[in-house]
Amino acid sequence: MLQIFPPLAEGGSRTVRGEDLSATCDYPGGAARAYVRVHLITSADGVVMADGPGGGRASHDGTLMARTLRELADVILVGAGAGPSSGDSGATLSDEPEEARSEGCRRRRRERGQADVAAVAVVAEHADLDPRGALFRDALVRPIVFTVAAAPRDRVAALAGAGAQVITVGDDRVEVPLILDALTEAGLTRVLCEGDPLLYGRLLGADAVDELCRTLTPCLIGDGLDRHPWPGPVSLPLRLVSVLAGDGVLFMRYERDRSESQDP
After folding, report:
1. 3-state class of 181 per DSSP?
2. Those residues with Cβ within 8 angstroms of residue 217's Cβ, 6 or more apart along the chain or in another chain
């Protein structure tokens, strides 16, 4: 992919691939708490696409960016409605055969001091997940389920029996600070959120989004679909960190701008 922002000192762009791409997209070092990165994949006209880069028209570079972000994460945080898949460690950066890519991913993660694969954490307020589903059946690491004290006990017991680590993060509503506290305590500070609009809204409402990554794909979806990734008006300042381009895809990375204090 081409890095077009920030510009090089001598002007122009540079090609970024492999481990350079990983370094370009890496998390800030030394985070003492969970650092939340949200990744949105949208069409050119702003429709959020839930089925991957290109919505069935995936480009190589769009898929590469999604894999890179997953490889860098300690944990992939999703909402129950996002349809998480098991073993979502996603992390591959090359065109090697699948087995070679997988081993290369694990090696790079070990070199960064991470577990071989990213954990998957699902926010399921009502514990409404299928304990026979792929998330539990094929998981490479024990999945985490965040739920509430009011969730039906039989559902909670079924998920625990299927191998999930069930963590209560509220009485009748999930509390984002408790989620982040639990992830921090587990040492899972590099958080990649691929959740649903409700989860996005809750993270924003708690001012818990540290970074937004947007993959803009070269297609138009048209009217008739919800264009907003979260409910309600949101106004939070961001700072553009980098822009990459490839295969018609634009990848934009923004950091939350916290330079303006909320208190005078």
Report:
1. helix
2. 41, 42, 43, 44, 49, 53, 54, 55, 57, 59, 62, 248, 249
Tokens 């639990």 — which residue?
182
Instruction: Please state, in angstroms and rounded to a whole number, the distance separating the CA atoms of residues 219 and 57.
Output: 9
Report the candidate in 133, 261, 118 with the shortest Cα–Cα distance to residue 194.
Answer: 118
User: Of the candidates 57, 41, 39, 46, which has an alpha carbon nearest to the alpha carbon of residue 220?
Assistant: 46
Strand, coil or helix: 139:
coil
Q: What is the spatial distance between Cα 62 and Cα 74, in angstroms, rounded to a whole number?
A: 21
Structure tokens at 187: 């040492």
Residue 226 to residues 48, 50, 96, 148, 200: CA-CA distances in angstroms?
8, 12, 37, 28, 14
Strands 190-193 and 35-43: parallel
Give dist(CA 41, CA 9) in Å, integer.
30
Q: Does 95 score more than 50 pLDDT?
A: no
Residue with tokens 């996603």: 90
pLDDT digit string (tens) for 175-227?
999 999 999 999 999 999 986 778 888 898 899 999 999 999 888 877 655 55
Q: Give the integer Cα–Cα distance in Å for 64 and 53.
A: 9
Q: What is the DSSP string of 59-126?
A: -HHHHHHHHHHHHH-SEEEEEGGG---TT------SSS-HHHHHHHHHHHHHHTT--SS-EEEEE-TT
Instruction: Round to whole Å and give the CA distance between 160 and 168.
Output: 12
